[in-house]
Design a protein that fits this description.
This protein is of the alpha+beta class. The chain has helices at residues 2-39, 49-53, 56-141, 147-174, 187-204, 222-238, 270-273, 284-288, 298-308; strands at 183-186, 208-211, 217-220, 245-253, 256-263, 312-317, 323-330. The protein has a five-stranded mixed sheet, with helices on one face. Strands 1-3 form a two-stranded antiparallel sheet. The structure holds adenosine-5'-diphosphate (ADP).
Length: 333
């Protein structure tokens, strides 16, 4: 916030400097043109035949009077220009400050969200690291640690390493938004790639994946679309009971392709629905059950990636009734 204030003041100072230079330049030009015009004497014989009829005294008087008036007028011009500058610089100063705030606000918000994200990510990374550290310390401290105990420690450490790997690869996905190239893409091909990514975890729970996506083309990045569908399928598998079915289908409406991913899982409570796309948000039930490991990053990443491809993501769900996630992407005509 302090940085934001000082950056705003610095930008305001720059705007003011530019405004002052412009005002001074404008005033100098106006003053010079004005004084030249005011001091211009009428051409000799400008009064034609009347000039000859005027006496010398009268002519001197007229010339002096004209000079005094020109001086007064140029004095008034100077005062008016001064007033104009004071007004322009004071209202300009206020506008410059508001403009600087308006210009810098999105940058400040992005920096704030970046800082929040870094601290959340660090927190998530620290948990498995602390678990590993304490397990290793216990194993090293004990003089009676058997080979079996060591194996148990290493197995547990390996699980934490897997958690760290999953987390870091999700974090890496977030940096992909800059590299996205949107082009005509076969939706079914992206879905097949995603299904291949999750097929082994689906098999472990005997979950069937019914894929009826046709050859529709969307304007998307195929690899990124496959990543998004992988995230949604990962969740569908995580939050579904054994021997259930996940269905993937597509429909088209107007200029939009809709991709539906439905599961028969535990569904999502109404009060969680508004938050599940937030970073690091996990419904309470997800935190308490061991088998549903996660970091609350998947859906926020999916939403960010789909938005970067000019699409949207929505969910329809109710507790115990399963969930349907719908991706909308521009159709390639
Ligand atoms: P994670 O799965 O790692 O917790 P996500 O961002 O992918 O993080 O999901 C956020 C939350 O949304 C999950 O914790 C879970 O409560 C809920 N959720 C996501 N997908 C589903 C689903 N298919 N069925 C039920 N709940 C889901």
């Amino acid at each position: 916030m302090k940085l934001f204030q000082s950056a705003t003041l610095r930008l305001t100072a720059w705007y003011m400097l530019i405004l002052t230079v412009l005002c001074l330049l404008f005033s100098t030009i106006v003053y010079n043109i004005g004084s030249t015009e005011l001091n211009r004497q009428p051409p000799k014989g400008g009064f034609g035949r009347y000039e000859a009829t005027l006496g010398d005294d009268l002519q001197d008087y007229i010339a002096k009077e004209r000079e005094t008036r020109a001086e007064e007028a140029s004095h008034r011009l100077l005062i008016n220009l001064f007033m104009f500058n004071v007004l322009a610089l004071s209202t300009g100063g206020l506008c410059a400050y508001l403009l600087a705030r308006h210009t810098l606000r999105p940058i400040a918000q992005a920096m704030e969200s970046q800082a929040r994200f870094s601290s959340d990510a660090a927190h998530e990374l620290r948990t498995p690291l602390s678990v590993m550290q304490s397990e290793i310390e216990v194993a090293l401290r004990s003089k009676t640690t058997s080979k079996h105990d060591l194996q148990a420690t290493l197995t547990s450490n390996l699980e934490e390493v897997a958690r760290l790997q999953a987390l870091t690869s999700r974090l890496l996905l977030l940096s992909q938004t800059e590299k996205i190239t949107v082009e005509p893409t076969r939706v079914d091909e992206a879905v097949t790639d995603a299904v291949n990514n999750v097929v082994s975890s689906a098999q472990k729970k005997h979950i069937a994946i019914e894929n009826s996506v046709d050859k529709t083309r969307a304007l998307a990045d195929q690899a990124v679309l496959a990543d998004i569908v992988t995230i949604l399928l990962d969740n569908a598998i995580k939050y579904s009971p054994k021997k259930s079915t996940i269905r993937i289908s597509n429909t088209a409406k107007g200029k939009t392709v809709r991709l539906h991913i439905s599961d028969e899982g535990r569904g999502i409570h109404k009060h969680d629905l508004a938050h599940i796309f937030d970073r690091f948000y996990r419904a309470d039930t997800s935190r308490t059950k061991d088998e549903t490991e996660g970091h609350g990053l998947g859906l926020s990443i999916a939403k960010r990636l789909v938005t970067a491809m000019n699409g949207t993501i929505q969910v329809q769900s109710a507790p115990g009734k399963g969930s349907t996630f719908t991706l909308r992407l521009p159709l390639d005509k």
